[in-house]
Amino acid sequence: MKKLTRTLGILLIFLFPLSVAAQEDLNALKTYLDGLADPVIAEAKRTETEDCNVTILSDPSLNKLFAQKMAYYLSGGTDVSLFRNYAKYDAADGKTTLGFNFMGPKSPNNYVNQIYNFGLVSDKVGKLFADTKVSNNVGISFNLTFLRRGTIGTGKGCDDNTIIDAMQKRREFLKESLTKLANNEINEFKNLQSSNINFQAFTDSELKSFEKELYKKYRDKFTDDELTYAKDKIKTISKGFVSIGGYLPIKGNDYKFANKQNDTTTNNFKPWDLYVKGNWFYERNIFNVLVTPTVGVKAYNSATLYTIYADLDESTGKQSLYNTLGVKYDKPNETYTGLSDYIWLGYWGIKALVTPKFIKGNWLSSFAVAPSYNQTFGKYSIQDLGLDFIFGLPSQDEKGISVNLSLKWLDIKDAIVSEENKKNYFVINLGLAVPLSKLAY
């Protein structure tokens, strides 16, 4: 009797819970693959070269392709970061950023069209609180990015559907083969559960976890296989996106100001930043180009600007900065004499990032050169030039480290400091971005 009861129990487990739960997941997987394998409409757009930009990839594959192309160069809190979590250190500012990303939409069938980025920024590594209070210069960076789907050029004429048809047949093949593999794996799991007492004790949540991993496994395999097949057919990639972001301080820096009667007061200034960026990415066979024009506004105070540009002036006196900004720094007493009000300054800039595609190896996976120009306007008009060298260090798990060597020429038109009083025109900065998770796509 006991043996018969156990046999009936095994039969019920086999016929009902797993057949329903696992079959639901298999149906979800089949629906997903059906969606990816549906005929893709070629959105042909005639260009000057009579080539066509077409849609030849499913949206998940397009997400992964773009993420792989751009990940090493956009790992900062003020850019589009394509890692879910990352840490960034900027030596010139002494700031550390711990960043987090959230993607939209949630459906894995659609391309990523929104990225929400939030970062915790501090100028003291690991020291967010001091004496039970928030440390100075702690704030939050944020970035909301809207992305277009993008286009892929195949180098074929607008009337040539060879690649479109080949990609469609490949997706149909992948759909059928992966669905069969998933079905076989579920049947194998059923057999294990019916014959192994350990598998019979699985709870509903454990079964769901198995189904979820199965779904992700074959979804990712579909994407990888499709990209591998399309690799030699893709000649150009183009994608545009717009970013809105900035920096909101939680606590700024303390500045001591002395008046004419030598009475000192301490003010905590919290400069904030707000910007809009337009981004355009274009890849050809030899190089990638990313162009980023930016406009924004920052809130400073005189002492903050004085601190930024003090190294450009002579080591004694700093008379030119005092005449320009109306602030004098008394180092022995660590006080400022002058204005302590906020100054609103707008700025605009443009940055171009050029990457030769052929640089890949054991020591260096990618390399980019990025010249930039920035101008601050308003009460003061300040022009700066920059030149960045960005090195991508290889990684087998898609978590390569990005190293940024930056050269900046400050105040190139002597708006703040006169030429005769300058002792230094440029600064050298080393930045480091370390992904804490795999690519988000």
Class computed from helices, strands and strand pairing: alpha+beta
Q: Share of helix among residues?
A: 25-40%
- Quaternary organization: single chain
Quantity of strands, as a count = 20
Q: So what's the overall shape?
A: elongated
Radius of gyration: 29 Å
Query: What proportion of the residues form beta strands (DSSP E)?
Result: 35-45%
Poorly predicted runs of 5 or more residues = 1-22, 38-50
The whole-number mean of residue pLDDT values reads 76
Pattern of helices and strands:
HHEHEEEEEEEHHHEEEEEHHEEEEEEE
Lateral arrangement of strands in the main beta sheet: 2-3-4-7-9-12-13-16-17-18-19-20
Largest sheet, in brief, is:
12 strands, antiparallel, barrel
> Gap between N and C termini, in Å?
55 Å
* Separate helix tally: 8
What is the secondary structure topology, with strand pairs?
Blueprint: H1 2-15, H2 17-37, E1 51-54, H3 59-70, E2 85-90, E3 95-104, E4 114-122, E5 129-130, E6 133-134, E7 138-147, E8 151-157, H4 162-195, H5 197-200, H6 204-230, E9 236-251, E10 253-258, E11 264-269, E12 273-283, E13 287-301, H7 302-309, H8 319-325, E14 327-330, E15 335-338, E16 342-356, E17 366-378, E18 382-392, E19 402-409, E20 426-435
Antiparallel strand pairs: 1-8, 2-3, 2-20, 3-4, 4-7, 5-6, 7-9, 8-9, 9-12, 10-11, 12-13, 13-16, 14-15, 16-17, 17-18, 18-19, 19-20
